[in-house]
Structure to design on (559 residues):
């Protein structure tokens, strides 16, 4: 019996240790983007967690996130049978959430079944032919064909159009060149579950000009610098953020980002019916997000170099400076070549906001129908910082930028109907947040104290003191501030939470708090524990202290 118990314990310890090791390995391979190590480590970590019936990393991260005004409660769904490499996008079809993998495969969310594969075949982007060509003709150059991806998708429904707009990077193996395209597919079906789109059902609306020649050294195509996000301007216009594929004149020859005779480093307006296009702005690097706000203004997010990620308000005909001027540096830390003073951005149209150091900002979306305190703001996602940024815009400037930690690389963000916020993660997971309304833990406490026999004047004073305590102490379980949580304090072990800054005397106690001990401590902390950070902060009045202890007993009970 003992031998069996030892064996079971050893197996359990080995399994847990292996899971921890794989998790750490997966985290750092993810952080450093070590492909295919990252993919293998992520799969192993997920398999181990499923085997042990443990929540996934993402489930643990998004279950509850507290922001200044709202508490987010998140659920996540994995896209089945896919790698964990970067890319993909979200779209809304009414109340339905669509998630597109970088390969162009489209899934829709069924909350019971998960992400369900839709019958939507993407157009041919030429990657298969490119892979063959590269192996035969350029065997000594990097291809990274997995980074040639379908960049964005939007569902459009109005009096003029009904269907999908799709942007993607393409390769023409015969001409040995590449660029970005926007394609359109008409849709007659009523719902995404009924849709059937074949590869040849797509009509190419726009192709960037010129078709770019392969690089002569290093990577044949630096396709992760393609940009490619789109935003719809009803009824028939689409805005495209067209990247410059790292042809910037700094690390490779300049394709002509500042010139008007090519489409790279530009935002473009394209008519989805006629295919007519025009440049809205120029001087951009790697446009990762495009959005239209409630006033019809166009906003973009853009990767800088080492520092200098940008949020830009796009004005028709303006030049945003790249590569002549920017707020970043070369990756060596040396100032980049610039027409003006380094780090100033004084000559060309400056960003509304810039991240230094870079956050690797990705998409940008207008928040609508989510929550009164958020609606009308811009939500910006981040890859490197693994966060969301909520931007309040007033008079064309950023009033504040609230940072909301997610813990995973966020590729796309989308505000939905019914008070939902959807994220697409680089782990190929869809996260949907809803709002859990904040409840005042002290609400009704005064009435409870009075009904328990306390004088109204004392009850009012007790509630007032407890409101002050809330500045440093939470009344929620396992949520600590400058002091430990007061949730369930009556009856729990003294110094018994995960709070890290107990004095040695409190942290080493084996006794439990009861109302008498707690009341004595509230009245005169150092008289109960000589080693406490609460010295001099007692209320003094024993009757008030006893009332506060009673109040703590009434408002929070251990679960």
């Amino acid at each position: 019996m003992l031998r069996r118990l030892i064996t079971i314990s050893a197996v359990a310890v080995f399994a847990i240790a292996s899971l921890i090791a794989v998790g750490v390995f997966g985290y750092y391979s993810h952080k450093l983007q070590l492909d295919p190590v990252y993919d293998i480590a992520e799969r192993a970590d997920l398999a181990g967690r499923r085997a042990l019936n443990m929540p996934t990393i993402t489930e643990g991260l998004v279950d509850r996130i507290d922001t200044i005004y709202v508490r987010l409660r998140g659920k996540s769904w994995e896209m089945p049978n896919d790698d964990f490499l970067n890319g993909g996008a979200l779209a809304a079809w009414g109340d339905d959430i669509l998630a597109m993998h970088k390969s162009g495969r489209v899934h829709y969310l069924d909350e019971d079944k998960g992400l369900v594969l839709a019958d939507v075949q993407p157009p041919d982007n030429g990657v298969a032919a490119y892979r063959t060509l590269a192996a035969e003709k350029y065997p000594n150059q990097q291809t990274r064909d997995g980074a040639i991806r379908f960049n964005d998708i939007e569902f459009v429904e109005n009096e003029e159009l009904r269907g999908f707009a799709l942007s993607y990077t393409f390769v023409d193996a015969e001409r040995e060149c590449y660029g970005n395209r926007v394609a359109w597919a008409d849709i007659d079906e009523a719902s995404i579950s009924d849709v059937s789109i074949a590869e040849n059902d797509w009509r190419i609306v726009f192709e960037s000009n010129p078709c770019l020649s392969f690089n002569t050294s290093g990577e044949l195509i630096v396709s992760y610098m393609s940009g490619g996000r789109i935003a719809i301007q009803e009824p028939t216009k689409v805005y495209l953020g067209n990247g410059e594929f790292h042809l910037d004149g700094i690390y490779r020859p300049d394709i002509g980002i500042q010139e008007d005779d090519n489409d790279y480093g530009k935002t473009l307006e394209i008519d989805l019916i006629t295919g007519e296009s025009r440049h809205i702005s120029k001087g951009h690097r790697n446009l990762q997000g495009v959005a239209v706000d409630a006033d019809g203004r166009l906003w973009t997010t853009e990767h800088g170099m080492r520092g200098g990620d940008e949020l830009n308000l796009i004005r028709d005909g303006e030049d945003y400076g790249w590569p002549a001027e920017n707020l970043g540096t070369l990756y060596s830390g040396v100032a980049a070549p610039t027409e003006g003073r380094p780090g100033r951005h004084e000559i060309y149209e400056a960003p509304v906001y810039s991240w230094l150091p870079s956050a690797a900002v990705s998409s940008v979306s207008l928040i609508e129908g989510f929550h009164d305190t958020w609606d009308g703001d811009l939500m910006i996602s981040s890859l490197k910082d693994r966060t969301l940024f909520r931007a309040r815009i007033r008079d064309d400037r950023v009033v504040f930028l609230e940072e909301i930690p997610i813990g995973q690389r966020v590729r796309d963000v989308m505000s939905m109907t019914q008070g939902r916020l959807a994220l697409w993660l680089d782990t190929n997971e869809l996260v949907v947040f809803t709002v859990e309304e904040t409840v005042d833990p002290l609400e009704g406490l005064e009435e409870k104290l009075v009904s328990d026999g306390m004088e109204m004047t004392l009850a009012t004073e007790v509630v007032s003191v407890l409101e002050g305590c809330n500045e440093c102490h939470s009344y929620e379980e396992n949520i600590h501030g400058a002091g430990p949580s007061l949730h369930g304090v009556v009856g729990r072990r003294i110094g018994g939470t995960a709070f890290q800054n107990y004095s040695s005397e409190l942290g080493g106690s084996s006794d439990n708090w009861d109302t008498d001990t707690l009341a004595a401590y509230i009245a005169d902390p150092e008289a109960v524990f000589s080693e406490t950070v609460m010295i001099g902060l007692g209320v003094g009045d024993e009757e008030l202290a006893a009332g506060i202890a009673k109040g703590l007993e009434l408002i929070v009970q251990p679960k």
